[in-house]
């Protein structure tokens, strides 16, 4: 009986053992056959370590494909502390190469972490320093690829492009505004090690980085470099408090060029003050526009039929008194009897006071609002200002008078260019923009595009036609004559605005400006140049900004392939103006006939023969009287 009882217990224990053994086998089979992949991935996650590979930011290109913001490859220092066998020696060597004290390097080398990026000392290393680190051949010390932003043209377009931080994050300008597009996806080299840092016998995995999206601007670098050159000349000649210039396509709102002084080099942004870095003056600066604002007043007066520029007249005695305040004309004694077209040509303040009175405050300020003053234009750049316009209930007779000629209101350069573009393009106010296309980085194919956006209609086409003629007349016969270009129809208007400080106008401290349109009969570009407090110059914008604008206009003509135009308003000649001649056709003439036909131009002959077979310059070209005409003779 006793043995039977023992035998029964043995059987029960044996059954339990067998059961447990079967369960273990089934569990092992389940793990190996069913759940292996999942558990293996979990294990790899515990073992895996990543050496980061930074992605390139998307490039920034001009409208013709010129690279304005690029990337260069640098290296960064990454440590795996558990793999460093001699931490003391590693810390000493690295501190010497990187030029930091050993205590700082100890914080990285002895840190209890799987991977340590040495920041900032080990970021974006030069090739020389990277080679020194590589030559150490120490375990646990790695050099990994890192992308660094590079601006090949230094300080050109810097406020527009902006800059990026050490982690390749956009901090300003387009780099910030379009950071989500420009930022790529980082890659990595994955390797596997145990908790002690010992490398496991598992193949490394390479995850390639994905570059950011390229963006193509509306900027034309051929025009941009002209603007940059002239602003540098302004600084050298006049030592201004600031200077700026911008160019817009009036038919789309596309920005063709934009720059200002002071400027900075985006490659070395940390060398500059935040005041310089953060102020993109063409969209941020706000000041009294002065006489360039008279374009808006004139357009409103013509649209409302309160004046006819060519038949209605105004007598300028030299000043007018409004609410006890005397408003004078810049010309002592005034301009006398003149048409309203001459009022614009002469930039006569009393004449514009009259225009303001004829319009009335409600109408004039409705046009100011219609043209976008007092509101942001919505350009795709950060930091835009909105200016200051009188509330209508605070506009009295004096405020109406001063506003009519551009004093007492505060506007931004981008508002002025956008508004004048609407004046000359047929009356359409467009939203300005600077990014045109988003491009796939590998193929360059367009992913999406920004299109022109019409905000509203401002004036009629008929008024726009009249204003284009009027602005051309200002350049040919008025204060903008130093911007005149023979053979091309240039429109424009000077501006000289007295600066305000603590509620008082400063003495001999002005913002001088020039607004230009090319060509006036079929506008392709609107140019604005402004110089704040230029030194060592006559306090007249016609002598200061107009010649600068002319040089930029010549480059715009070349960049946009603008052809010569017929029917230009003849310029009122000045004593220092060159005399131009149109080159006649002398091919087939004898030497005697050609010389007589070309007189008074100087003629130079080459070749043998009795008749002219070739000539340079060619027929129809405009040349100054001192030019030399070269003729090739033959039979």
Would you kindly provide a written description of the structure presented here, covering whatever features stand out?
The protein folds into 4 domains: 2-34; 50-217, Penicillin-binding protein 2a (Domain 2); 287-549, DD-peptidase/beta-lactamase superfamily (Beta-lactamase), CATH 3.40.710.10; 580-634, Trypsin Inhibitor V, Chain A (2-Layer Sandwich). The chain has 20 helices and 26 strands. Strands 2, 3, 4, 5, 8, 16 and 17 form a 7-stranded mixed beta sheet that branches. Strand 2 (60-61) and strand 3 form a beta hairpin. The longest helix is centred in the N-terminal third of the chain and has 33 residues, at 2-34. The N and C termini lie far apart (147 Å).
**CATH topology of the largest domain, anyone?**
Beta-lactamase
- Stretches where pLDDT is under 50 for at least 5 consecutive residues are 42-47
* C-alpha-based Rg, rounded: 36 Å
**What is the CATH homology-level superfamily of the largest domain?**
DD-peptidase/beta-lactamase superfamily
Mean pLDDT across every amino acid position? 87
Structural class: alpha+beta
- Provide the helix percentage: 25-40%
What fraction of residues sit in β-strands? 15-25%
């Amino acid at each position: 009986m006793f043995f039977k009882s023992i035998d029964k217990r043995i059987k029960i224990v044996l059954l339990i053992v067998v059961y447990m053994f079967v369960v273990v086998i089934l569990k092992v089979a389940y793990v190996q056959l069913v759940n292996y992949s999942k558990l293996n991935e979990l294990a790899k996650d515990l073992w895996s370590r990543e050496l980061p590979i930074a992605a390139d930011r998307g490039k920034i290109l001009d409208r013709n494909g010129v690279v304005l913001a690029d990337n260069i490859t640098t290296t960064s220092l990454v440590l795996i502390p558990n793999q460093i066998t001699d931490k003391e020696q590693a810390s000493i060597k690295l501190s010497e190469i990187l030029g930091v004290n050993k205590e700082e390097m100890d914080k990285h080398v002895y840190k209890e972490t799987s991977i340590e990026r040495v920041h900032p000392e080990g970021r974006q290393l030069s090739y020389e320093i990277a080679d020194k680190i590589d030559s150490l051949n120490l375990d646990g010390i790695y050099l990994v690829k890192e992308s660094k932003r590079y601006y090949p043209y230094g300080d050109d377009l810097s406020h527009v492009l902006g800059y990026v931080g050490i982690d390749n994050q956009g901090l300003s300008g387009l780099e910030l505004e379009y950071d989500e597009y420009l930022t790529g996806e980082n890659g990595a080299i994955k390797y596997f090690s145990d908790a002690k840092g010992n490398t496991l016998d598992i193949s490394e995995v390479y995850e390639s980085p994905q570059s950011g999206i390229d963006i193509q601007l509306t900027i034309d670098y051929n025009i941009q470099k002209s603007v940059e050159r002239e602003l540098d000349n302004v600084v050298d000649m006049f030592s201004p408090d600031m200077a700026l210039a911008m160019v817009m396509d009036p038919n789309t709102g596309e920005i063709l060029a934009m720059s200002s002084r002071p400027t900075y080099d985006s490659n070395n942004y940390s060398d500059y003050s935040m005041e310089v870095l953060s102020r993109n003056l063409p969209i941020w600066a706000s000041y009294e526009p002065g006489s360039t604002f008279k374009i808006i007043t004139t357009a409103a007066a013509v649209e409302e039929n309160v004046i006819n520029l060519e038949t209605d007249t105004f007598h300028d005695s030299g000043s007018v008194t409004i609410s006890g305040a005397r408003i004078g004309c810049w010309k002592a004694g005034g301009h006398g009897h003149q048409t309203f077209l001459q009022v614009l040509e002469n930039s006569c303040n009393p004449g514009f006071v009259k225009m303001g009175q004829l319009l009335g405050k409600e109408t004039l300020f409705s046009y100011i609002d219609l043209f976008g003053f007092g509101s942001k234009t919505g350009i795709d750049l950060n930091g835009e200002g909105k200016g200051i316009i009188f509330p209508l209930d605070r506009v009295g007779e004096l405020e109406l008078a001063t506003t009519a000629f551009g004093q007492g209101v505060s506007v931004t350069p981008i508002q002025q260019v956008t508004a004048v573009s609407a004046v000359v393009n047929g009356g359409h106010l467009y939203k300005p923009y600077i990014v045109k296309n988003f491009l796939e980085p590998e193929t360059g194919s367009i992913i999406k595009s920004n299109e022109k956006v019409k905000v509203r209609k401002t004036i009629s086409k008929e008024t726009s036609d009249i204003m284009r003629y009027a602005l051309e007349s200002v350049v040919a016969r008025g204060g903008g004559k130093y911007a005149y270009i023979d053979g091309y129809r240039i429109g424009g208007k000077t501006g000289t605005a007295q600066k305000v400080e603590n509620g008082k106008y400063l003495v001999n401290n002005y913002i001088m400006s020039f607004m230009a349109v090319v060509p006036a009969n079929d506008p392709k570009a609107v140019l604005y140049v402004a110089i704040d407090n230029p030194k060592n110059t006559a306090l007249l914008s016609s002598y200061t900004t107009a010649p600068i604008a002319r040089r930029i206009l010549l480059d715009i003509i070349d960049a946009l392939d603008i052809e010569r135009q017929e029917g230009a308003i003849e310029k009122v000649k000045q004593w220092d103006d060159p005399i131009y001649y149109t080159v006649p056709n002398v091919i087939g003439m004898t030497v005697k006939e050609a010389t007589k036909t070309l007189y008074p131009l100087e003629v130079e002959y080459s070749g043998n023969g009795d008749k002219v077979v070739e000539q340079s310059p060619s027929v129809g070209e405009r040349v100054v009287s001192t030019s030399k005409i070269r003729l090739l003779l033959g039979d």
